[in-house]
């Protein structure tokens, strides 16, 4: 399926939409229900009646934002109405929750009257801690925000106006620094005169740009005082009318230091870029196509062109998600009455400062190991940089306090710790790997290439630039499926029945002739996708392999074990699942391969699982599990674990803590580990759990997944000589894509 079809399926899958309400308190007993509702709920009601501020103490108001829209200016879709705009508002709620742990009610209003919207939102003030106005057409949006900001005692923020202004403002501060130009001296040209352009122009003035140096162009050309006199320009455009000759965008850009595009794609050419002042700053933010292509702008001249766009596939993406979640987080946490100019400037300045700091390795790895260093190609932080929450949010909160907008004060150091505790890294884990994969895609064989899910996954791998898939299977069947789902790509296909596979058969025979395989059997086996894929990887015609979607695990694993085998430093392969929870990540091994491991196997599995954890930027702490705690039971089963632990602790190659044997709760509960067994080598709960046998491992990870609410990624094979991963039967497309990403990163290390 194409992007549109995938998006429709994404939204319609049960439960429909993208957000839900979840309880935050126990509701398991009659007493719980009595506390949650009648009669216990009367107590907080009475307290709030005495002091309305207690609503922040006894209800979710302090962490609840209303995303309000009339659907009159939705994304690039225009006036599609409130119901059609609801998926966007839900999506906004997803971003609030994902990046700042803020809950959202989306509110779509069926009105085209600004006054009616203002009155409706005003009446809802008791419900919310803040209001995010979204996708409201100009010029009405200006009046709606102004009036509501005056009327309400909670923060009101129109992201379409101020989000782009704040993020691009941060970029402008750093771009001017790099170009060695003063903000006050910059000649700035705007293409576009809508809500975001006008708000950005005003915000740039707050940052230090001279209003007299801002030239704004709409579809009719430069907005001049002459035009303002004779044309019906709204008062917001009139505010930026200049006493200069009329002209078009090309005239405006001649000699300008900065171009800010908030209009339509393709309206700026290289000659216009060449007409600008030295070391020009170009923010071409129209989406999906910038006003001028990144490559065209950069190659238009020989000096430094500092370029930003709204796209994620180029440096310096101006992405509003760098702003609104963290601005609201800070505003809510100090119970601000508004989001004022001081708070917006603080956010922009903090973003600009963050870009100048040394970038952590985890962020570099998350973006494919590309260089991230302050300069023309890195003037604003990346959205997945976890420091954004910890740097921007406190700056906003402090600005609210200093400007008098806050109703409570915070201890900054303690507040940063609180912010760190709000969001875990579980949902970031695969992004780290997939972005690393995109930096250098590898050839991944999909051995069951005729399967519909494999073909759809192959399309996504190509579309996202994660891997170069090779589909093994019936070429006609693959093409038919591709056409059926409208997948616009030209996959690499190896059809075992029609392709020349003689060399692969020769190699299979060479490898297995003393293992019971005859020449005739080699010719037959090479038609099997698992054997063919394994030989392709072994011979270097592919870099990695995925299989198992339509096979039982043992039968899928057998060919790569026979053909590729284990690595030079390994005698055994093992299956590992990564389980991601909200606030922790755990690697479970062995869950798929070794039925009754001895000391040698346990030792090796632990070592390789620790190495795997580090590929996900997780520093391993390994616990070898049993029903015994540190010798409380003495029998052959516990002794083999203790021997493995002793060897690992003596092994210079193992530079992470390992201990055991220990029970599962000892391994993962900090109080037990530190109070009862304070002598343990583990200072913190384990994140690598090595099970004593396959039965325990398989049962354990599935219980954690199903009852613990963990997301399972895997199984990932460790110990193989070349990257091979075996899927579980029934895995979904996203599982295939994720595991392919893991395989690519494995291959990169090869």
Automatic annotation (TrEMBL):
Tell me which domain of life the UniProt entry assigns to the organism this sequence originates from. Answer: Archaea
Q: Which residues form the signal peptide?
A: none
Claim: Metal-binding is one of the keywords in the record: yes
Q: What class of enzyme is it?
A: oxidoreductase
Gene Ontology MF annotations: acyltransferase activity; malate dehydrogenase (decarboxylating) (NADP+) activity; metal ion binding; NAD binding
What keywords are annotated for this sequence in UniProt?
Metal-binding, Multifunctional enzyme, Oxidoreductase
- Which GO BP terms apply? malate metabolic process
InterPro entries tied to this protein: Aminoacid_DH-like_N_sf (IPR046346), Malate_Decarboxylase (IPR051674), Malic_N_dom (IPR012301), Malic_N_dom_sf (IPR037062), Malic_NAD-bd (IPR012302), Malic_NAD-bd_bact_type (IPR045213), ME_PTA (IPR012188), NAD(P)-bd_dom_sf (IPR036291)
Q: Which cofactor does it need?
A: Mg(2+); Mn(2+)
Q: Which family does it belong to?
A: In the C-terminal section; belongs to the phosphate acetyltransferase and butyryltransferase family. In the N-terminal section; belongs to the malic enzymes family.
State what protein this is by name. Answer: Bifunctional malic enzyme oxidoreductase/phosphotransacetylase
Organism of origin: Haloarcula japonica (strain ATCC 49778 / DSM 6131 / JCM 7785 / NBRC 101032 / NCIMB 13157 / TR-1)
């Amino acid at each position: 399926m194409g992007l549109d079809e995938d998006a429709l399926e994404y939204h319609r899958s049960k439960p429909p939409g993208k957000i839900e309400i979840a309880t935050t308190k126990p509701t398991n007993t009659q007493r719980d229900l009595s506390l949650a509702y009648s009669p216990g709920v009367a107590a907080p009601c009475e307290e709030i009646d005495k002091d309305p501020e207690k609503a922040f103490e006894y209800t979710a108001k302090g962490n609840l934002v209303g995303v309000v829209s009339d659907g009159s200016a939705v994304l690039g879709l225009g006036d599609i109405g409130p119901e059609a705009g609801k998926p966007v508002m839900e999506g906004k709620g997803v971003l609030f929750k994902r990046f700042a742990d803020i809950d959202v009610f989306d509110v779509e209003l069926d009105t085209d009257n600004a006054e009616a919207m203002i009155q409706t939102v005003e009446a809802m003030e008791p419900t919310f801690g803040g209001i995010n106005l979204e996708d409201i057409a100009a010029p009405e949006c200006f009046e709606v925000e102004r009036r509501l900001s005056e009327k309400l005692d909670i923060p009101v923020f129109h992201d379409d106006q101020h989000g782009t202004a704040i993020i691009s403002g941060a970029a402008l501060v750093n771009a001017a620094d790099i170009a060695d130009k003063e903000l006050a001296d910059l000649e700035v040209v705007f293409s576009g005169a809508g809500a975001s352009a006008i708000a950005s122009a005003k915000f740039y003035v707050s940052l230090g740009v001279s209003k007299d140096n801002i030239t704004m162009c709409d579809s009719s050309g430069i907005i001049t005082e002459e035009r303002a006199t004779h044309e019906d320009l709204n008062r917001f455009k009139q505010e930026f009318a200049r006493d200069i000759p009329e002209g078009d965008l090309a005239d405006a850009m001649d000699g300008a230091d900065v171009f800010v595009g908030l209009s339509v794609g393709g309206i700026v050419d290289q000659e216009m870029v060449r007409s600008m002042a030295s070391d020009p700053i170009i923010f071409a933010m129209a989406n999906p196509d910038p006003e001028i292509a990144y490559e065209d702008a950069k190659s238009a001249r020989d000096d430094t062109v500092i370029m930003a766009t709204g796209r994620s596939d180029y440096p310096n993406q101006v992405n509003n998600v760098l702003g609104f979640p963290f601005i609201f987080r800070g505003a809510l946490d100090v119970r601000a009455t508004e989001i004022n100019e001081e708070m917006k400037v603080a956010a922009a300045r903090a973003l600009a400062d963050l870009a100048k700091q040394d970038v952590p390795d985890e962020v570099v790895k998350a973006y494919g190991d590309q260089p991230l260093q302050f300069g023309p190609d890195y003037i604003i932080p990346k959205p997945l940089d976890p420091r954004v929450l910890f740097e921007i949010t406190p700056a906003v909160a402090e600005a609210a306090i200093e400007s008098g907008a806050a109703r409570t004060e915070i201890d900054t150091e303690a507040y940063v710790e609180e912010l760190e505790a709000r969001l875990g890294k579980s949902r970031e884990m695969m992004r780290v790997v997939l972005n690393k994969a995109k930096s250098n895609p590898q050839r991944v064989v999909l051995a069951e290439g005729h399967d519909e899910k494999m073909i759809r996954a192959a399309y996504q791998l190509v579309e996202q630039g994660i891997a170069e898939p090779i589909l093994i299977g019936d070429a006609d069947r693959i093409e038919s499926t591709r056409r059926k789902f409208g997948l616009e790509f030209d996959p690499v296909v190896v059809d075992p029945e029609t392709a020349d596979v003689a060399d692969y058969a020769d190699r299979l025979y060479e490898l297995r002739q003393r293992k019971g395989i005859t020449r005739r059997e080699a010719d037959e086996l090479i038609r099997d996708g698992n054997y063919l894929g394994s030989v392709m990887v072994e011979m270097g015609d592919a870099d990695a392999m995925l299989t198992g979607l339509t096979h039982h695990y043992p039968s899928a694993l057998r060919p790569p074990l026979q053909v590729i085998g284990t690595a030079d430093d390994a005698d055994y392969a093992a299956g590992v699942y990564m389980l991601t929870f909200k606030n922790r990540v755990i690697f479970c091994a062995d869950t798929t391969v070794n039925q009754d491991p001895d000391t040698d196997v346990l030792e090796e599995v632990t070592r390789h699982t620790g190495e795997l954890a580090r590929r996900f930027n997780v520093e391993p702490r390994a616990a070898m599990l049993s029903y015994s705690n540190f010798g409380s039971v003495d029998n052959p089963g516990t002794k083999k674990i203790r021997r493995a632990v002793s060897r690992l602790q003596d092994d210079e190659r193992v530079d992470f803590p390992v201990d055991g044997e220990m029970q599962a709760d000892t391994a993962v509960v900090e109080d037990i580990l530190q109070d009862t067994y304070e002598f343990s080598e583990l200072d913190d709960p384990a994140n690598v759990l090595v099970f004593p046998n396959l039965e325990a491992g398989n049962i354990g990870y599935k219980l954690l997944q199903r009852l613990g609410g963990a997301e399972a990624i895997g199984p990932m094979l460790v110990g193989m000589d070349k990257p091979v991963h075996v899927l579980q039967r029934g895995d979904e497309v996203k599982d295939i894509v994720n595991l392919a990403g893991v395989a690519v990163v494995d291959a990169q290390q090869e």
